[in-house]
Amino acid sequence: MMNTNKLAAENTLNKSSQAQESLSKILDAITIIEDMNTQIATATEEQTLVAGEINQSIVCINDQARDTYELSISNQEKSNELIGISEHLKSTASVFKLN
Hints:
Blueprint: H1 2-93
């Protein structure tokens, strides 16, 4: 009986050691996963910041393109006015022919 109890105690001790070793490996894996989650969260935050900066740049480019378009329309109108003035001056000056 004592031998049986001794064997049972040794078996329990072995299983307890195995369980402790398994729990230690699980704890190590949890630590690795937590580190990975932290890295992912940091990368996600950085990507969010970069995406915001890109969005802001696109809005700025769009505003500048709109301004450029409006200025080109204004330039076209001014050019047309200058052409009209030039043609008027040409016809007015043709009255004064020099011999």
